[in-house]
Every structure is written in C-alpha cells, then in structure tokens.
Amino acid sequence: DVEVMKDVTLGFGEALQHCREESQLSEDKMEEFFHFWRDDFKFEDRELGCAIKCMSAHFNLLTDSHRMHHENTDKFIKSFPNGEVLSQQMVQLIHECEQQHDAEAEHCWRILRVAECFKLGCQRRGIAPTMELLMAEFIMEAE
Ligand code: BOM
Predict the structure, then answer these.
(1) What is the pLDDT of residue 125?
(2) Whose CA is closest to atom 16 on ligand 1?
(3) What is the pTM (predicted TM-score) of this model?
(4) Which of 12, 70, 75, 92 has the fewest CB atoms in 10 Å of its CB?
(5) Terminal alpha carbon distance of the chain
(6) Which of 48, 11, 9, 12 is nearest to 29 (CA)?
(7) Could you give the C-alpha distances from 140 to 15, 37, 112, 124, in angstroms and in order?
(8) For the chain, which domains are there?
C-alpha cells in the first residue's frame, strides 16, 4: 500500500537531520530522504549507506552485527497508520535483500546495496510511494 510506505518513509526520514554529520552525507547529495524513491535516484554514495545505517540505529532497528532487527522493525512499521498491512512484507523483503548482499563486509556499502534492493522490490510489488504523494505530504507537514 503506497500510502503506508509514504508514512513510513517520512517517519524514517525524520532521522536524517540526526545522521547527516555522523554519516558525512552533504546536504547537496540528499536534502530530503524521500528523494530515495525518485526514478533517477543513484545508489552511488557510500555516505548514503552510512546515513541509512545511522537512521536505522536511531530507531533501534539494527542488531549488533548491523543487520535488521526483525522484531523492532516490525514494531516500527506497525507504529504508522495501517502499518500492519505491510510490516511482514517489508521485513521479509529487507531480509531477502540482506541475504543477497551478505558477502559485502563493509556495513555502509552493504546497507546501501540492501536499500537499493529494497526499493526495487517495493517497485515490483507496487508498494513504492509516488513522488507526488510524498511531496504533497512533505509540503503539508512543513506548513
Ligand atoms: O541490513 C541493514 C538493514 C537496513 C535496511 C535498510 C532498507 C531501507 C532503506 C531505506 C528506505 C526506507 C523506507 C522506510 C524504512 C522502513 C524500515
């Protein structure tokens, strides 16, 4: 459900401010986290992987080995309206992506690859939020 994914993205994206400094992600590389869903978004910067790692840690979504904490991630997604309709699917998808990229030992690079795989998986399943939906909500929140 694209509406649920929109809310989860905007909620998750709130950690970006906390993580910019730690991850060395410059403002011009990604001013807002929802650009992640743009069709032309490039998964090239290790710093973005570091930022996603930091953002996940901010919400307690990582284990000691820097993999997704299944229970906490399920709870996090369920904390959004109708989150329960997507939580299992999202946890499953992220887990499959982690398995695909398990050979990458460097955490920031691995998490960047997992994020790219997650985005592709969401698009295939038709649960990726549209930019129109994200922009509209983002502007409303800012006002
Ligand atoms: O293996 C480390 C786990 C990190 C997974 C990161 C995948 C998510 C990419 C960022 C997109 C976020 C949108 C919503 C977040 C839901 C948790």
Answers:
(1) 95
(2) 8
(3) 0.95
(4) 92
(5) 25
(6) 48
(7) 19, 19, 29, 28
(8) 2-142 (1.10.238.20)
Listed residue (36, 18, 47) closest to 111, CA to CA: 47
Tokens standing for residue 94: 């992220």
Residue 72 Cα to ligand 1 middle (Å):
12
As for the ipTM of the complex, it is: 0.91
Mean pLDDT of the chain: 95
Three-state helix/strand/coil letters over 86-136: CHHHHHHHHHHHHHHCCCCCCHHHHHHHHHHHHHHHHHHHCCCCCHHHHHH
- Ligand 1 contacts CB of residue 87 (under 6 A): no
Residue 69: name the closest of 77, 79, 61, 57 by CA. 61
Is the pLDDT score of 91 beyond 90? yes
Query: pLDDT band at residue 68, thresholds of 50, 70 and 90?
Result: very high
